[in-house]
Amino acid sequence: MLGRGQNSPTPRGQYSRVVDTIDTNILLRATLGDHPEMSPLAQKLIEESVDPLDVPDVVLIEYVHVLEHHYQFNRHQVADLLGDIAAHPNLSLRHDVVEAAVGHYLKHPKLSFVDCFIAEETRARGVEPLWTFDRKLVNQLIPWEETTMSWLDEVRANWDEW
To answer: Which of 26, 119, 138, 146 is the most buried (most CB within 10 A)?
Structure first.
């Protein structure tokens, strides 16, 4: 049943609690309070949850996209809402990745939130370097690095030929 945590078998046959997960619409309604029926229900779900509700990475990325493109929120408004979400005790998310991505998102206005999030996800997982053909990402993101990546010079030198 959707929307309810339940016990499910793990690969080894043991049972573990599946944490409830919320989607983008719940997050939008709860934080914006813009729907007379759905917003109070979404807020109640979050406020009264016994266990922390999981907010998947893709939900945060879609959330930012909707705020920017549908509601025309600026970066600071988006960052404030993401800060509220991250600070909420009943919401579980990747705080380190989100906090760092928001910082880069505010500092580098040419980069999208998803670009910043991808970069921080790469760092958090320890799977650097991040290979990309995204020129903005290469030009703005790589200078954050404390180490020089030898491939960067080659990418920049040969970009127009690729």
So the answer is: 119
